[in-house]
Amino acid sequence: MKFIFERDTWQEIYGAIRKNKIRTIITVIGVTWGVFLFVFLLGMAKGLDNSFRSQFNDFATNTMFVWGQQTSIPNEGFKRGRRMQLTLDDVETLESQVDDIEYIAPRNVTGQWGTPPGQFVKGSKSGAFKVFGDYPTIDKVSKKKIFDGGRFINEEDIKYERKVCVIGEDIYKQFYDKDEEAIGDFVRINGIYFKVIGVYKPTQSGFEGDDSIFLPFTTFQTIFNQGKNISWMVITAKPDKNIVNTEATIKTTLKRIHNVHPDDTQAFGSFNLGEEVAKVNGFLSGMRLITYIVGIATLIAGVIAIGNVLLITVKERTREIGVRRALGATPAEVRGQIMLESVLLTFLAGLLGFIFGTLLLWGINTAIGNNDDIPILNPTVDFFAVTGALLSIVLLGTIIGLIPAQKAVSIKPIEALREE
Amino acid sequence: MIEIKDLHKSYQMGSNSLHVLKGIDFNVKEGELVAIMGSSGSGKSTLLNILGMLDEADSGSYFLDEVPIKGLNETKAAQYRNKFLGFVFQSFNLINYKTALENVALPLYYQRKKRKERIDKAMEYLGKVGLAEWATHLPSELSGGQKQRVAIARALAADPKVLLADEPTGALDSKTSYEVMDIIQSINDEGKTILVVTHEPDIADMCKRIVHLKDGVIVEDKEVEQVRASQYV
């Protein structure tokens, strides 16, 4: 193996490769294309993956929602069809009784599910929008981007029932001129003056949209006369807890508090993101697997092309090999040279393909920019995947190079020299 | 230098066996210039191939510089070829993508000589065949005679014991043939042992000894008065 590190060996190989330009180019194209596709596919899959992930990213994936519905089984003297109403007491009970809970945020809304929307008035313009009453905790569960200079509702707002609001980007656009400052402005909601403290941009998840108004929970309670009633609650389980189990525990607890039959599946509605995320994850890993299979198959096809071309060139070079052997090249030297040619070609071609693939990904990334319509985000390739791919094509190149190398030495020099 | 005793060789041609060499006894002393003559099918090329360790005899003994040549594996044969023998072929067999200089340096590469030494030596032998100024040319840019001279320089570069030339003038016109023979003679004058396979009597006459092969046996082996090629050049 010593000859691998000798300059002369490489000079011989360089000479052979350089002087056989066409076959070198053809060979290189095969593998370059293979690696190029491999990198491109992996990058796009990663981009899609990133994009999907970013949709969930601002949402704690260990999150569930629970709301009241109607009972379906009579229990303890209550007839069926009783309407369940969640209250702040339920929130307190759950918080103290269920250990799994990381955050719990009761929410109130008007303008959804048949309730009248809030009337928003600024100057002479007015409109009807969904109004939420929220605790600051909600921002930990469903992250919203707040534009510069603004803020979300905080504990002080809750404590003092401040008349402040956070409005959606769309509302801002409808009611304010471009570059007009909204923060600090006073608007009327259902006839009451509120100070705007922030403008939010929705993340892709969530159902608030970009045309909702957020008020401090306590302020909402008073203004809309909610008492202790809440519309639903959002619960995030601790990172090490399974949200599905937490969901079950919470519903069981709620049924106990509200005297609901344990088997009643209708009394409380719930939904957890964990399952949805799992579904998307499953889809993504399936796609990744397909990408790998297609990519690796392409790589193999490329390497086989190299083997094929080398086999043809060995046939073409039979005479040359015969001459070399007449001049004293041992079979090991001939074999070594052909194999090194194969390895070098595959490696260089692979590197080239990797560079082209990366450039294309970079180009795509630049072209897409922050366009939210295309579900590709930051398409990159894993360094280890690429290194692994390069290593495996070098390995494949070695193996595939064995065939022409063996053929080259299996021809007797005398026969090689006779070849016309 | 070369001692051959009772050499036999047959080729399998389908179901028939073709007995090419039928007991050759043949000795060559150091410094000889021997022509091996014979019509096509006489076994002269087969003999040269066996001498060149490119082929192996079925039976008989072969000593080269008192080293027994028998049952060599390919690696050993390659090393012996490199050390003992220089080849000149009818069709030159230069490597077409290497320059004249690189072609001449090739046997030295397989001798594991340092690059500097290879270049110097190759240059020296190219000069010897009068092609120093053609060193950087590819074979395709050389005439037939020049190609053969490069091939001779290459055969000499490794400083072999014996030079084996298989129809060295077969692809050349008579004028260039004589130029090539002139070089071969001058190398022989310096003491190199040379075997030339040829079917051209005028080429054979330029050697010092002629061995006639017919149907696989030596029918004639005579010393001749050497005709100097230089008088035709």
Describe this structure in words.
The complex is a heterodimer of chains A (420) and B (233). Chain A is built from 13 helices and eleven strands. By secondary structure, chain A is α+β, with helices and mostly antiparallel strands. Chain A has a six-stranded mixed β-barrel with strand order 3-4-9-6-8-7. The two termini of chain A are 33 Å apart. The model of chain A has no long low-confidence stretch (mean pLDDT 79). Chain B is an alpha/beta fold and 233 residues long. Chain B has seven helices and ten strands. The two termini of chain B are 31 Å apart. Chain B has one domain: 3-Layer(aba) Sandwich (Rossmann fold), CATH 3.40.50.300. The radius of gyration of chain B is 17 Å and the shape is globular. The longest helix of chain B has 16 residues, at 174-189. In chain B, strands 6-7-8-3-9-10 form a six-stranded mixed sheet, with helices on both faces. A four-stranded antiparallel sheet of chain B has the order 2-1-4-5, with helices on one face.
Search tags:
heterodimer, A: 420 residues, alpha+beta, 2 domains, 16% strand, B: 233 residues, alpha/beta, Rossmann fold, 4-stranded antiparallel sheet, 33% helix, globular, transmembrane transporter activity (chain B)
CATH topology of chain B: Rossmann fold
Q: Any idea what the CATH superfamily of chain B is called?
A: P-loop containing nucleotide triphosphate hydrolases
Spatial separation of the terminal alpha carbons of chain B: 31 Å
Instruction: Extract low-pLDDT stretches of chain A.
Output: none
Percentage of residues assigned to helices of chain A: 40-55%
The geometry of chain A reads as elongated
Integer tally of domains of chain B: 1
Strand content of chain A: 15-25%
Low-confidence stretches of chain B: none
**If interface size is counted as residues with C-beta under 8 Å from the partner's C-beta, which chains form the largest one?**
A-B, 27 and 28 residues
What distance separates the N and C termini of chain A? 33 Å
Summed over residues and divided by their number, the pLDDT of chain A gives a mean of 79
* Tally of contiguous helical segments of chain B: 7
Query: Over the alpha carbons, how many angstroms does the gyration radius of chain B reach?
Result: 17 Å
Separate helix tally of chain A:
13
Number of folding domains of chain A?
Answer: 2
For the record, the CATH architecture of chain B stands as 3-Layer(aba) Sandwich
Task: Trace the largest sheet of chain A across and list its strands.
Answer: 3-4-9-6-8-7
Radius of gyration of chain A: 34 Å
**Spatial order of the strands forming the largest sheet of chain B:** 6-7-8-3-9-10
Keywords (chain B): ATP-binding, Nucleotide-binding, Translocase, Transport
Protein name (chain B): Macrolide ABC transporter ATP-binding protein
Domain ABC transporter (chain B): 2-233
Organism (chain B): Aquimarina atlantica
